[in-house]
Amino acid sequence: MADAARQWGRRALDFVDAVERLSAPGVVTLFESEIKACGFHAYIMAGIPQPGTALADVTLANGWPPEWFEVYTRDNLVAVDPVPRYGASTVQPFGWSEARYDKESDPSAHLVMTRATEFGLVDGYCIPLHYDEGGAAISLATEYLNLDPLAKNTLQLIGVYAYNRLRSLTRPERQKRSLLTAREREVLRWAAGGKTSWEISVILRISERTVKFHLVEASRKLNAVNRTSAVAKALAWGLIKL
């Protein structure tokens, strides 16, 4: 037992020491290697989306099957997924089975977990994280969860350090992205394509007054003097693409 504790402890310390010197791709590669050695074949590191924010906007690293991520984001399954919902209420890591729900009264939650199995995500382990700006989670998937307490402690330490390292490396870019809401970026994308406020209102099925409001707000946040300047800054900062 003592030898096992030392081995897991050394593994965690080696990881912590290594990630401080790695770039984002290196952190992801090392993290994937560590969780694979513990029996996990898929994962996601992401914040819990706030209203108006897409999951893709708050995802730091995505090791889910591409088809599942597409389904999950397209159908906004994060809104009914019992795993992140339970993670928001606890600071302790937990197995997916601990995120309990009643399939009769909560069929949407049951649907998420059932559909996940179709992509090989049968069981898993979730490490919740909490920051001033909101919650986040590292969710690891496997066919069958069988971790001893020492492995769980090591995974928690590895996960937290990997997430924080990636967060620190990508934060400047994400701070810029978070300047604008999803709707403001959408309006600016159409404006960048040469659409008038009225045309954008028809495309998005909102009033022209609302379109102008979003353009004014986006310009204010980007410190732009007009919509042309706002579009130019949004393109230059990578907030929108043509």
Q: Please tell me the CATH architecture of the largest domain by its name.
A: 2-Layer Sandwich
Query: What low-confidence regions span 5 or more consecutive residues with pLDDT below 50?
Result: none
From the helix content, strand content and strand pairing, which structural class follows?
alpha+beta
The helix/strand order is HHEEHHEHEEHHHHH
Q: How are strands sequenced across the largest beta sheet? A: 2-1-5-4-3
Tell me the CATH topology of the largest domain.
Answer: Beta-Lactamase
Main sheet properties: 5 strands, antiparallel
- CATH H-level name of the largest domain... which superfamily? Transcription factor LuxR-like, autoinducer-binding domain
* Portion in helices: 40-55%
| N-C termini distance | 58 Å
CATH class placement of the largest domain: Alpha Beta
Question: In the residues, how many domains can be counted?
Answer: 2
Question: What's the total count of β strands?
Answer: 5
Note the beta-strand portion: 5-15%
- Our Rg estimate from Cα atoms comes to 21 Å
Count of DSSP helices?
10
Average the pLDDT over all residues and give the rounded result. 88
- The 3D shape can be described as globular
